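Question: does this match?
>
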Amino acid sequence: MLVLRQAAQSPVTLAELIEHVDLPKATAHRIAVALEIHGFLRRNESGAWLLGPLLADLADAAGPDLPTRARPILEQLCRETGESAQLFEREADVRVCTAAADRESGLRDTVPLGARLPMTAGSAAHVLLAWSAGDDTDAELLGRASFPVKTLAEVRRLGYAHSSAEREAGVGSISAPVRGRGGDVIAAVSVSGPVGRLGRRPEPALVSAVLRAAASLTG
């Protein structure tokens, strides 16, 4: 899914595709060619992969995807809070940054687009696990988590998560859930920055800004 999103924005080489899907070169190439035949992918003059005509038509019919909708909202959140803002979506046992807006200057926490971060630390991980189905993968992740399991109950009660120096020393974050039309949590909106600015306990105004941003992406 992430590879198709990147192909929609810029060409993806076979090497990049292999890196993201974690498949042998021959297998990845065979699948890409099959997707090309059916119109889901196409190749440019240099052989890099782009979104194909069929998938482009489907995307137009469905409207903007979540990362596309999130970008201006994250930019506004970044301006409002003065901190970097991200959208995280879960892929199995990792969370992927699918949209981001960074503070322009000064000390900041920058999460690159496409970064794959652990589900065992950080407020976005708290959010994505707090409303998860609780399968065997979740149980294994919670066994390795940097936070106690009871944290998830607190996240559900409050409606947001906060972490301090959990994923990285000196970095804090606040995250809130984004829900799909059926009510399931499909992503997390976050702001992150130095603990010295975010505080060990988040300011209500900062929490409110994150909650508003997440709510505007819900549905």
Remarks:
- The chain has ten helices and eight strands.
- The longest helix spans residues 66-81.
